[in-house]
Design a protein that fits this description.
With 302 residues, the chain is mainly α. The chain has 2 domains: 26 residues, no CATH class; 260 residues, MetI-like (MetI-like fold). 68% of the residues lie in helices and 3% in strands. The strands form 2 sheets. It has a two-stranded antiparallel sheet with strand order 1-2. Strands 3-4 form a two-stranded antiparallel ribbon. Helix 1 packs across helix 13, helix 4 packs across helix 7 and helix 10 packs antiparallel against helix 13. It is globular and about 75 Å long. The protein starts with a helix and ends in an 8-residue tail after the last helix.
Amino acid sequence: MRQGKYPFVIGFLALPVLLYSVFVIAPYVQAFQLAMTNWRGVGAPEWVGFDNFQRLFEDEAFWKAVQHHGILLLALPLITIAIALYFAFMLNVGGGSRSGQRVGVRGSGFYRVVFFFPQVLAVAIIAVLFQMVYRPNESGLINGVLMKLGLDPVFFLIRPNLALWSIIGVLVWQAVGFYVVLFSAGMASIPTEIYEAAEMDGASRVTLFFRVTLPLLWDTLQVAWVYLGIAAFDCFAIVAVLSVDSGGPDGATTVLAVEIYRNAFTYSRFGYASAMGVALFFLTLTFAALTLRVSKRESVEY
């Protein structure tokens, strides 16, 4: 049995590794090669070395997009995790103890379906829905209510200082449901005896959350932060559909994915767009590695 283990493992993994190499690794390698060229989509690429990367450091649109990613990396994980943690705690622990089991608030099953509903919608559909929500006239969901109350409409996607935060609101709305489910699964694995012991010592709901639930969910929080950080780098569809002129007004909502698309398919600068893609790849990789390193701590066993 031991002698046949390695041929079995190799045979089992050969096809998945081959497919991964062809459809994931090979495109990455091609993108790195294309980033070293000046190619307009037709003809032979012209080798330019690191010129495209040098241009990145002088490109105002690139740095504006990086700045927006910095805001997204702080706001999106913090807001989403805070809301999802609160909802998950209330749905799993907030109802107290019944028959020796921790339960959520009344109607928890219904709320789980409601919170998860955005996950079944395509990203483009969500963007179109929020176009109607954010409309700057009486036909908009929010401004329609404000105008009926005699208030001035709010130009969510037109005002440069408000447009990015309006898009962050959509990203949070879309993501919260998934992380409610993720945190709920983590809370379900925490033994009831730990909560009971804390309650016997006089712990309130707030104390239970910060002293019991949060420390025992640390590994799940770490994963959530990494996922949300990657989502902050990958928000092309929402920005492209929802923003004014794909990244406007005046570049107020542009992100690297939008700039990559614009350079490749509007300006036909495929080599330069690939250089931006390489930069995005390393930014994402660096973020994930730093997050895992900074948030690393000893596992709590129970």
